[in-house]
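Before a colleague's protein record goes any further, I have to sign it off. Thanks in advance; the entry in question is below:
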Amino acid sequence: MDGMDRKPVAPPRGPIATLAGLLAFAGGAALLGVAFLTSTSVLLRWLAGGPIKGDFELVSLGSGLAVLGFLAYGTLMRANILVDTFTTRLPRRLNRLADAFWMLVWAGCMALLAERMAVGAAEALATGTRTIGLLGVPIWWAIAIGAFCFAATAAAAAYWVARFLRDEA
């Protein structure tokens, strides 16, 4: 069996797919906002002699949140790099078990990151941690959103583990 005779896979549906889509949309909106902010700030440097105050801080927060917003959707759509050089000749069921195992590892890593970031968000809130720069924006909320995005990514990975084990992928 080669990689070309895989059976078609139905697109994911349900609450995890809806959540992943909403997070990806929010990530795209954040990325567009960052692009607009950067363009406006550069334009103001040329026209008015100065940028938007705190543009670097806002771009850092927005870019990070954009990337995190795309993780669950990318996982759900299996838009990752697959290297199956050594497993191509194995039986389909064994390939599915290997895919389930590695997706379970991914889910575990994402769940661990979600938990650690949730702890980090609580600590940042308790200590009043802020960005270092002109604005001094509190960052607990961005860390909490990141934790939520990692948790959603873990859920998307768990979705695939179940599908692999039921041989639906």
